[in-house]
Write a structure and sequence with these properties.
Radius of gyration: 27 Å
Structural class: alpha+beta
Number of strands: 4
Number of helices: 7
Strand order of the largest sheet: 2-3-1-4
Largest sheet: 4 strands, antiparallel
Order of helices and strands: HHHHHEHEEHE
Number of domains: 2
Distance between the termini: 36 Å
């Protein structure tokens, strides 16, 4: 199972077709896993995952046994590397996943490529559905506008203690030529069904000025 299908005499048409078909099949599997495990999958990323194993396989087959060709290809890959945009850790993991498959099929180890694709793919699929590995979205951003004559230090603490498990003042900004304060809190609700009740109590205290409650924007994760 772990022997190379490429004979010692050289590459044959049958072995090249088998390796290419396996690379394309596992590329489709990687793209499917990426789509399932990503909240907002990128179309270009999915296309890349499909064709990357075949491209890596072709490069390995072409430079097999040729030192000069290997050095030239390494220089070309370095140029591509410095012109690529940063990506998140999850995307880079999928890139390496498909590259490893392409390396295995390029050397003719179809059985090892099968084992690698299924084992790592199963781990990626399982972790995509485990709640502990998902990004938590329980924090929200509460924005409250108050008049300048109202002291914002602890002005809503009693209301927050009743409806929130945690709250933190993250920004204070003056607006309307200094006549208003724009307060922004990171909050975690005890019971989302009592959200309107909390907002009604806040607006009775801030003079019915603007109040908004939304999700906290997650920072971009790049490597």
């Amino acid at each position: 199972m772990f022997d190379s299908i490429i004979s010692s005499t050289g590459l044959t048409t049958d072995s090249a077709l088998i390796c290419t078909a396996v690379s394309l099949g596992f590329g489709l599997l990687a793209a499917l896993l990426y789509r399932i495990g990503t909240k907002q999958p990128s179309r270009s990323m999915m296309i890349t995952l499909i064709v990357l194993p075949t491209l890596v396989q072709a490069v390995i087959m072409l430079v097999n046994g040729s030192v000069g060709a290997g050095i030239a290809v390494m220089g070309a890959f370095n140029l591509v590397r410095f012109r690529s945009a940063p990506g998140c850790a999850r995307d880079i993991c999928y890139i390496f996943y498909t590259m490893c498959i392409g390396l295995a099929t390029g050397m003719g180890y179809v059985g090892f490529a099968l084992l690698l694709a299924l084992a790592v793919g199963a781990v990626l699929a399982v972790l995509s559905f485990v709640p502990w590995f998902r990004e938590r979205q329980d924090k929200k951003l509460l924005r409250v506008v108050i008049p300048e004559n109202l002291d914002y230090n602890g002005v809503f603490d009693d209301i927050f203690a009743e409806y929130l498990t945690s709250f933190k003042l993250v920004q204070v900004k003056t607006t309307a030529m200094g006549t208003l304060f724009d307060l922004r809190y990171e909050v975690t609700e005890k019971d989302p069904s009592r959200q309107k009740e909390m907002l009604d109590k806040i607006r009775t205290r801030n003079g019915n000025l603007t109040i908004s409650l939304g999700t906290v924007q997650q920072p971009s994760e790049t490597l």
